[in-house]
Amino acid sequence: MDKPLKPSEHAEKKLIAAIMEKKYKPGDHLPGERELAEQLNITRPTLRETLKHLSAQGWLTIQQGKPTRINDYLKDGGLGLLGAMVRNGKTLSKEMILNLMEIRVVLFPGITEIAVAKAPDELIKKLVKAKDLDNRAKSFADFDWELQLLIVNLTENPVFRMILNDFSPLFETLAYHYFQHEESRKHSSGYYDMLLNSIDKQDNDEMNLNLSESAIIVKEAMKHAMEFWKLNY
């Protein structure tokens, strides 16, 4: 069960949603403190706390003696904003979801190469279990997320894990829809099998070739998921 939000967290979520839904556009000014506090049903001290937090994330700029201004977060925002956007996934546009999925298409094949080079046996041990998955959406979604977590952890690069953590809420939503389809589960079964075969090579002379092959397999699987989302949602 989700933990109830504090008043400041609830207000922050509402303001982020309003910005992402373009109720407040870049360059717009927020209403005055009294009016905005009443709209959000919070006290003025709580509003100040909320605005300071949003300012630190890059959503807006607090100007002494002037109205608070909305920033152009798509141009000037950083990774901190990315996590906040994903946590507010219900307000993400289809275009933004595809942009986020494209990041995965670009980054994850290279991350997989590092994991395969460092710990191929661990990946093989995990991928073998895919053969025993029952044909349910939740089983596939859970396995796929566990596989992604394993891959980033095997790289021993904590930044990769931090990036993946930011994607977690979005993945839960996308995976639920994606794996509801029989075709998607079949495609993923084939992906796990191909990835297993590409890693399970004994000849060390072929290692560099195997790494590239694994990256290509991962990239194609993630492009397939992206194309599926384009066509179905």
TrEMBL record:
Q: Which residues form the HTH gntR-type domain?
A: 5-73
Report any one BP term from Gene Ontology. Answer: regulation of fatty acid metabolic process
Q: Which UniProt keywords apply?
A: DNA-binding, Transcription, Transcription regulation
- KW Translocase (keyword) present: no
Concerning Pfam families, the annotation shows: FadR_C (PF07840), GntR (PF00392)
The UniProt entry, under Gene3D superfamilies, shows:
GntR ligand-binding domain-like, Winged helix-like DNA-binding domain superfamily/Winged helix DNA-binding domain
Gene Ontology terms, MF aspect: DNA binding; DNA-binding transcription factor activity; fatty-acyl-CoA binding
User: Which InterPro entries is this protein grouped with?
Assistant: FadR_C, TF_FadR/GntR_C, Tscrpt_reg_HTH_GntR, WH-like_DNA-bd_sf, WH_DNA-bd_sf
Q: List the PANTHER family.
A: FATTY ACID METABOLISM REGULATOR PROTEIN (PTHR43537:SF52), TRANSCRIPTIONAL REGULATOR, GNTR FAMILY (PTHR43537)
Question: Could you identify this protein by its name?
Answer: Regulatory protein GntR HTH
Q: Which organism is it from?
A: Desulfamplus magnetovallimortis
| Taxon lineage | Bacteria, Pseudomonadati, Thermodesulfobacteriota, Desulfobacteria, Desulfobacterales
